[in-house]
Design goal:
Strand order of the largest sheet: 1-2
Number of domains: 1
Distance between the termini: 22 Å
Largest sheet: 2 strands, parallel
Radius of gyration: 23 Å
Strand content: under 5%
Number of helices: 11
Length: about 210
């Protein structure tokens, strides 16, 4: 390793002061984060409040909002119809996503106490998929095990009935829709954070800042 360049803390802080981040750029990063992470309604509110134009077309935004609202309201069939109307290839080419949406349908049946309907749905719609994929079969078995507990709070997989599970499914659909439209599925803030960490490590190797 070469000799580190030595600079004072005051000099370093002075250099940092030259770095200016425009509010407009920060707003665009926030907007990008909200959309790509599935917080579509929050993104729409932020757009109206900040006058920040998203880098996603209005048709896609409308689909994202409709699908997210449907999934998080437990109307998974409605969400799947909206996705298919927008682009049928999304579910046709993504078997893992298709299964997770079907799994969410099963969870909603269990949540509503429709035991026999849930068992029939699992057997007819999900079991054939599980036979071809061991990881999917394990997820299916975990989900069906919810039926064995009268008190789901004591169930080891009770988190499947949490609102967070709906959000997880909605985010997965959200990412697939964005990818289908050639948009990044991961927020730009994530990439910027990785670059920041890399830059910090590089500076640590090259500079010695005197306090």
């Amino acid at each position: 390793m070469g000799i580190k360049k030595v600079i004072t803390k005051e000099d370093w802080e002075e250099r940092l002061d030259y770095v200016k981040v425009r509010k407009e750029d920060m707003n665009r990063l926030v907007m990008n984060f909200l959309f790509t992470e599935g917080y579509v309604e929050a993104a729409e509110s932020f757009r109206l409040e900040s006058w920040t134009a998203p880098d996603i077309d209005l048709a896609t935004i409308a689909v994202l909002m409709g699908v997210n609202k449907a999934v998080q309201s437990g109307r998974v069939e409605d969400a799947m119809e909206k996705v298919n109307d927008f682009n049928p290839e999304i579910l046709d080419t993504n078997p893992q996503l298709f299964f997770h949406l079907q799994q969410q349908r099963l969870i909603e049946l269990i949540r509503n106490g429709k035991v026999f309907e849930a068992l029939e749905f699992a057997q007819k719609e999900l079991a054939p998929i599980g036979e071809e994929n061991q990881s999917i079969l394990e997820e299916l078995e975990r989900t069906v095990s919810l039926l064995a507990f009268e008190d789901v709070t004591r169930c080891p997989v009770g988190e499947l009935l949490d609102v967070s599970q709906r959000m997880k499914t909605a985010c997965e659909v959200n990412a697939a829709i964005l990818t289908s439209q050639s948009h990044e599925k991961d927020p730009k803030l994530q990439s910027i954070l990785k670059m920041l960490i890399w830059a910090q490590n590089w500076l640590h190797e090259k500079l010695l800042i005197l306090k």
